[in-house]
Amino acid sequence: MKRLLLRLFVISSLVLLAASAHASSRPRYGGNVRVLLRDRVMSIDPLSDEDRPATRDRMAALTFETLTELDAQGRLQPGLASSWHAENSKRIWQFRLRLANFHDGTVLTAADAAASLAKSNPAWKFSAPDRQTVSIETPYPVQQMAEILALPRYAIVKRQTDSAGAAVLIGTGSYKLTQWQAGEHAQFSANEDYWGGRPFADSIEFQMGSSLRDQLMDRQLGTYAATELSIDQLHTVEQNNQTVTLSRPSDLLAIVFLQNDSGGRPGKKPVDTRVREALNLAINRAAISNVLFQRRGIPASGLLPQWLTGYEFMFGEATSLEHARELRADAAAFVVISPISLAYDFADPLAKLVAERIAVDAREAGIIVQPYAESHINNKAARSSINADAVLLRTSLESLDPSAALSARMDDLGLFPENTAAILGATRAEDLAQIERKMLGGFRVLPIAHIPQALWLNNSAHNWQQMANGTWQLDQLWIEGAR
Amino acid sequence: MLKTAFKRWFCALLILSLPVAAAAQQETASIPAAATEFVQLILSRSGSPPAVAVTFQNLAGLPTETQETLQNAMFNAFRSANVRLVKPEQSVVEVQITFSEDWQGYVWVANIQQGPNSQLVIKKLARKQQAASSRAPTLTIRKISVWQQETPILDFFQDNQNLLILDPGQLSLYTSDVGQWRLRQTLGIPHQYPWPRDMRGRLEVHDREINVFLPGVRCSGRISPPSLDCRASDDPWPLDAGLVAFYSSRRNFFSGLLAGQSAGASVVPFFSGATWQSGDLRLWIFTGTDGRTRLFQNELASPVAMFNGWGSTLAAVHSTCGSGWQLLTSSPADTTRPDSIQAIEISGHDAVSVSSPLDLAGTVDALWTAGNYDQVVNGVLHSPSGKYEAFTLTVICNQ
């Protein structure tokens, strides 16, 4: 079977080689870009509670824009806002909008932006002092407001209902959503009147929930411009000299202990702190990264990766079964230690392997971990009804700004909402580091690994920018062979 | 065979290591100041203790020599602040300094332990960018940087007194002042419709008269007194001395319809083109939007040769080398990879490479034959750092 897959890949490669004979640096207009996504997305609304928010955001970014953006170097750039300023207290911010139109032809106004932002964050006060100015008032200082507003969840969306009462989402982006079959297929067409100039491709089409293996079997890979890959598929693809791009190890795989205040089932008895710490010391992260993630992952000790902050190394503590056993024994003197039920994503085969490996490591320290598969564990609402002590979660890195990334990650993990003000008010890197250290100190979250996102790219696709955190920037994308 | 391969590797290693060494030297020069500032921060957080114990850790992969330079600079900074450096058992304040790094630069982290309390000091330092290198040439392309800015450059003009930079929103006029370009005036360019992506523009200056060609817009004015009037226009753009062509106002290419001396003729839509006279032959070359570069001789009805794998941007340059005319072309790389420029001569129906590629740290956004239509090509480079650089290219014959 493996030989067949390889042979099919070689055939696909030859097709691609022929297609890439006419390379060129100047972008070409036209063409339909087809993209294969591993996961299924049920709604494109940036605020929907999705199992795969990162996949949703990849598509949503084509049609919904944020007021600001972070470029590939992590520098702040204007988006729908052309300028901004804050009062000294950093509690009141004003953003000046550029002239832009929604896809229905109406002009974007500050009132539209304020209404959209208010949905994104009901705790803050958004207003429109004039047609082009959005004012934001927060109960605490927000140092990095412009970076925060670049997060996908702050995308500007005009929400309406059609005559049948169905929700209609309208954006301002360079592509318009023209076809949507939830969980199956999405098509976006070029916005001819986009304020930043019409995009090069005529359309971008996403096929969801289809595996790379299926496409290889169907000999269809050559018709796609790009395909998401999982780490275990990299070896096959790289063997055939295909173009694979890897982001930096940005996704966080972590165990989160469910408690009433972190989306856990009401009434569930929390796992003792000493047992959580013992488990933390028992997990062999190096083995997980080197073996299960084929050296593509990096052992995680912090919530943000070392490459982003430069200070994750401070949180590391070497695996120590001896210390783990001592802690476990210490806990056993005071409480009854029950087995820890650990839910992992049933749709992620690697998550299963990691959970099983954790159970093996835990047993060495005298802790029983019982892994089992659950659906929708990344969905915050669904998580509250899960009957598990802990979940193994994989969250994407939503921002290249450490402050915005940490606040988004905390939100995704459903942890420590009380720290939001401190994170957003931090003025120095050391303040953020101290907050992170404090959050890790309670062992409510046990970071396991930072994992990169992988992408196979057809040679005919150009300017496909995969950012350091794995997000895609497709605004300059163009395709070879287009007319 | 093995020897040749080894030589190639050795040369590549040498070329690669030169800019690294230069960058390291630059970094070393700023070390004492940064180290002093860092130590002052540590002392202010720890309440300026009379004695500290300091240990170091290197997680940034710094060479031993650099690490020692850093450590010594920090020791000196402590001593300059009248703080004694002692062993851990003799001190109440222990400072663990880690030379770490993130994706953008170096991160120095100091963990200050005072009894049960600990504090952090973090300092970030930008990592210097490495310069691009060029390989040993046969015919040499010489690049001279003229100007750098954060916003896009479409085209530029320079003489001894003036530098004009065309960007999508304005034309900036600089005058020479003791060897420095000083901004004299910016002239706005109003336009009704959004500019297309991959925005392009052409600037021509003759006898202090300015002509600007942008998608769907034409401006004219003067250098002195500075003036510029813009209007909606589909006037054809001048590409070089004998080539004038209509531009697709909402795209990034020429429609293929020619004007000027070749008025009425048309070729396939193209990104860039050039024409020159070689003996009795008039030659034209166009980089088509279909990825093929077409060569025409004497008439434009059908190409005499087609080439694949060329970059889409080219310009002709007149020199005293070889046949007297060379084409400078960009590489087929897209913006995700660094670009290069190579000189090519047309010999009969063949294209012959006559220089090594000049490797560039970015993407070539534009190559235009300079205003005198002779020995200089003006180029614009977009670097991964986001900066735009205007530069000139000339061809130097090898002895």
Average predicted confidence as pLDDT of chain B:
85
Describe the main β-sheet of chain A briefly: 7 strands, mixed
Shape type of chain B: elongated
Beta-strand residue fraction of chain B: over 45%
Strand segment tally of chain A: 25
Proportion of beta-strand residues of chain A: 15-25%
Q: Given the C-alpha coordinates, what overall shape of chain A results?
A: globular
DSSP E strands of chain B, number: 29
| Oligomer kind | heterodimer
> What Rg of chain B, in angstroms, do the CA atoms define?
28 Å
Distance between the ends of chain A: 39 Å
SS summary, helix count of chain B:
3
Low-confidence stretches of chain B: 1-29, 129-137
Architecture blueprint of SSEs:
The complex is a heterodimer of chains A (483) and B (399).
Chain A: H1 2-19, E1 32-36, H2 53-63, E2 68-70, E3 76-78, E4 81-86, E5 92-97, H3 110-120, E6 125-130, E7 133-137, H4 145-148, E8 158-161, E9 167-170, E10 175-181, E11 185-190, E12 203-207, H5 212-217, E13 226-229, H6 234-239, E14 243-246, E15 251-257, H7 273-282, H8 285-292, E16 298-299, H9 306-309, H10 321-332, E17 340-345, H11 349-364, E18 369-374, H12 380-383, E19 390-395, H13 402-413, H14 420-425, H15 429-441, E20 445-451, E21 454-457, E22 461-462, E23 465-466, E24 472-473, E25 478-479
Parallel strand pairs in A: 1-12, 1-13, 17-18, 17-19
Antiparallel strand pairs in A: 2-3, 4-5, 5-7, 6-7, 8-9, 10-11, 11-12, 13-21, 14-21, 15-19, 15-20, 16-20, 22-25, 23-24
Helix pairs in contact in A: 7-10
Chain B: H1 2-29, H2 31-45, E1 51-58, H3 64-80, E2 84-85, E3 93-101, E4 105-114, E5 117-126, E6 140-149, E7 155-158, E8 162-167, E9 170-177, E10 180-188, E11 202-206, E12 209-214, E13 217-222, E14 227-232, E15 237-240, E16 243-247, E17 254-259, E18 270-278, E19 281-288, E20 293-297, E21 305-307, E22 314-318, E23 325-330, E24 340-347, E25 350-353, E26 358-359, E27 363-369, E28 377-382, E29 388-396
